[in-house]
Amino acid sequence: ALQNQLARWNAFADALHRHFPLRTETLAALPRPDTFVCRCEDVAHGALRQRSSWIDAKLHTRCGMGACQGRICGAAAQVLYGWTPQPARHLLSPARIATLADAGSEPSHESIPLT
């Protein structure tokens, strides 16, 4: 039943997007300089207008570095500025237990005597 409801809502969303497409030129004119684009890091539109790319914005304003990792503000930046957001990286990568166990048996660097 839940799958049917989801399919019905997705079909409705597709029809809505087909009949009422968003106009990026209209959306780009909406925000004022004090409008927050990145809610996680409180980055306003005025601070992002001066940036040239997604990476530049992240380095100078922390946009996309908050809790959502750019999932919300990345789409807004793509529409407003034409930037392609970088995909979020995984915080951890899996490792085999055997690899971790072997890593402890070999020293990674020589110990430096304290004098």
List keywords for this structure.
two-stranded antiparallel ribbon, 2 strands, 4% strand, flat
What order do the helices and strands come in, and which of them pair?
Blueprint: H1 2-19, H2 24-29, E1 36-38, E2 43-44, H3 45-48, H4 54-61, H5 73-81, H6 97-103
Description:
The chain has 115 residues and is mainly alpha-helical. The chain has a domain at 23-88. It has six helices and two strands; from the N terminus they run ααββαααα. It has a two-stranded antiparallel sheet with strand order 1-2. The radius of gyration is 23 Å and the shape is flat.
Q: How far do the termini sit from each other?
A: 73 Å
Main beta-sheet strand count, sense and barrel state: 2 strands, antiparallel
- Helix segment count? 6
Instruction: Going across the biggest sheet, name each strand in turn.
Output: 1-2
Q: Low-confidence parts lasting 5 or more residues at pLDDT below 50?
A: none
Strand content: under 5%
Q: What class do helices, strands and sheet pairing give? A: mainly alpha
What's the overall geometry?
flat
Number of strands: 2
What order do the SSEs take from the amino end to the carboxyl end, as H and E? HHEEHHHH
Gyration radius (Cα, Å) is 23 Å
Overall mean pLDDT = 83
Helix content: 40-55%
Short description:
The protein is mostly helical and 115 residues long.
